Amino acid sequence: MERLENYYNQIKNSPVFFGMNDEELKGLLECFNARVRKYEKDEIIIRQGDIISNIYLILKGDVNIEKDSYWGRRIIIARLSKNDNLALSFVGSKNVESNIDAVTVSDTVVLILGYEKCTSMCQNACTRHKILINNLFQILSKENIELIQKIENVSQKTIRDKLLTYLSNEAQKKHSNSFEIKFNRQDLADYLNVDRSAMSFELSKLQKEGLIEYNKNKFELRS
Amino acid sequence: MERLENYYNQIKNSPVFFGMNDEELKGLLECFNARVRKYEKDEIIIRQGDIISNIYLILKGDVNIEKDSYWGRRIIIARLSKNDNLALSFVGSKNVESNIDAVTVSDTVVLILGYEKCTSMCQNACTRHKILINNLFQILSKENIELIQKIENVSQKTIRDKLLTYLSNEAQKKHSNSFEIKFNRQDLADYLNVDRSAMSFELSKLQKEGLIEYNKNKFELRS
DNA sequence: TACTTTTTGTTGTATAAACAACAGAAATGT
DNA sequence: ACATTTCTGTTGTTTATACAACAAAAAGTA
Which pTM value belongs to this model? Predict the structure, then answer.
């Protein structure tokens, strides 16, 4: 059984609670009926159709945001990890059903906050709530920008362009030409929305041409 | 010259100012140095690389959110219209450059609010500011959900599936099997990320097969 | 260590889409 | 009303990708 206290420092430093002092944070965690929950690999945290009224903060592990298309083809919208939030936009849009699944990729620990209850109780009056909503606004902004970047990735017309766009963006995020990606080949293909084998083929072509080098999940962009 | 007063009622009823009384709204407009600006067709309101510190609210007209890909191919991320906001996520993420263009599709009127100035002045203290940030959080949530839906649209593997997914989503939004879309063919193709002529061909095939009927921009889904 | 399962890379073939070029329709301007 | 421009639909050809089937490598298990 995981205890909240084990993660206290991490929680305190997460973007959700940025700018709060200990007192405010502790008050908030109580007000929100904060609890920690553990999931195993391949468990579903959120399902399409769920109504979300909790804030989910990943404390440990990796989670796929997925969507199953009409004929069961899987689309990976995003890969989230430590300090990321799940389905925050459905907390903001009340009574809107989730249009995504959140599926664990590894053993995962999540902090869950009962958003609804607290906001109706304190009427947004307390300082900590003001800080929180400001933070949530900023977090959602970032998510938004990343979704736009993902749209850019999948909107390239060839597999080659999708790969190069994706890898360049990753290099930029990591501030280095050499970096590790979190996707395995199948997941990357589902993220870029292409066939895995065709993508593998294109990857080795890019390597042969000297544009990139890779070994398993370590990639390097060559000038 | 357009005057703010001409749009006062519309502004009052927009999602940005939802839940405010006249006094709060007027105070806010003043505090934000609200002004109205007119754009002609094909003008660029926001450019990639801009730092955004204003809130933009469309009062009249239509605006494309676009991105130019590496070799000048155009991607349409979204088509916005009356009561929608432009680039709100870049207001939330300070000092992040816009990664999109906002381009008018017709003559357009926009309300501009100097977000930065006001928030630094009033320190989030006033009631109206609390209402505002709550509203912005909800608006951003909706945008987020729509971006995910767009990802679903463009992630279909065939033109046919993209069209059917898009048209079904539109029908659902309009609560009717018969509806009008705002895109012309080229824009729709850029939105779905396919070749226009191939898309035209697929549309008429769908019509011949009896799945849809259309005339110009009016579409009907047949069971 | 040997065995099984999962992941990744390779190839050939069928298929769908991009592209180019054009014609007709619709909209716009004079 | 006419000319001009923009938009839409159609077709043939080229090209890239999905798909299937398999081999090799890596990871996991007994």
Answer: 0.94
